[in-house]
Amino acid sequence: QAAEKGGYAHYMQKEIYEQPKAVRDTLSGRVTEDGTRVVLSELGWTEDLIKQIDRIHIVACGTSYHAGLVGKAAIEKLARIPVDVEVASEYRYRDPIVSRNTLIVVISQSGETADTLAALRNAKALGNRVLAITNVVGSSVAREADDVIITWAGPEISVASTKAYTTQLVALYLFAIYLGQTLQTIAQDAVTTYVRELQALPQKLDEVLQSAPQIEEIARAFAVWDDAFFLGRGIDYYVALEGALKYKEISYIHAEAYPAGELKHGTLALIVDHVPVIALVTQDELYEKSLSNIKEVKARDAYVLGIAWAGDEEIAKSVDRVLYVPRTLPFFAPIMLIAPLQLLAYYASVARGNDVDKPRNLAKSVTVE
Ligand code: G6P
């Protein structure tokens, strides 16, 4: 097993470090050589088929659901198609309104999650087209869906999902650009910019991972607390949800993600002296609003770790500690933000002496309903 971990202490740590390669592999062959178009030849869709899609339902569980939330933001922005995202165990029992031209997108790392598979089967029974985004070629979800986009993350062993999430995001970004370029809801210049920026992400991720020693030190200090709060606005909030999930599932510390603007409607009551607050601040148009939320928690003496773009000197004045990530398009921020959050959870779990790769009560693939 030590050899399989390739010198890392845990599979999770190894998988976090595999992310630059996983992103590169997931992009590979899916953009033209001149970097001006996305090609998803595995779909083989015609322009007519794409034009008929009037709504998209994304259905998934756990971390895959969190990727779906970012996917909604990307698809709605680039392709202007309305998207709903729902956890599979809710979606399948509530008789959702599904028009004939609603595309169902199921996201599943394993391709075997019972509720996700059941939602897929319901959609197929209704006669709707189902696209699967999965990491396992030949999984049930991959076999039963009409179309499949494989995330080339490679085998993920640790129960807490890391590189699968990142590659699900990449697949969703590619899909959103693909829809947008076909529907011409985005200009050619923008397509080129998006593609170029996607291709720069692996290198930037490598840079992010170099802050591991700082993150370890912060995680050790945070791990003595029984709570942690993750705040963000817009897409940052979706990443906060995934950051909190990672944190709670392996450190067993209560972690809550909140849209920063909602704080004063409840969570602010829980903010006490020195409690760790992790504030994600990458969305430029929400910057001032986020800073004022940070001031609200600082006024209650929380200890705030800000995660922001490199070069943002303003943020340093409002928080106790900053972690900088290389700048990319605000839209791709989740890829930059998630690695520090994964490392924070990882080191908090190590500090607490937990079984990082096999957290109590949790399974890698949930095949029961
Ligand atoms: C379990 C795993 C999570 C995963 C979720 C959905 O809860 O522990 O890491 O996100 O199932 O799994 P899937 O394979 O469908 O993505």
From TrEMBL:
Keyword Transmembrane belongs to the record: yes
Entry EC no(s): 2.6.1.16
Reactions it catalyzes: D-fructose 6-phosphate + L-glutamine = D-glucosamine 6-phosphate + L-glutamate
UniProt superkingdom: Bacteria
GO molecular function: carbohydrate derivative binding; glutamine-fructose-6-phosphate transaminase (isomerizing) activity
TM ranges: 331-350
Keywords (A to Z) from UniProt: Aminotransferase, Cytoplasm, Glutamine amidotransferase, Membrane, Repeat, Transferase, Transmembrane, Transmembrane helix
Domain SIS: 46-185, 214-359
Location in the cell: Cytoplasm
Predominant place of localization: cytoplasm
A single GO BP: fructose 6-phosphate metabolic process
A GO cellular-component term linked to this record: cytosol
Residues the record marks as active site: 364
Biological role stated in the UniProt entry: Catalyzes the first step in hexosamine metabolism, converting fructose-6P into glucosamine-6P using glutamine as a nitrogen source.
Subunit structure and binding partners: Homodimer.
Full protein name: Glutamine--fructose-6-phosphate aminotransferase [isomerizing]
Organism in which the protein naturally occurs: Sulfoacidibacillus thermotolerans
Chain's gene name: glmS
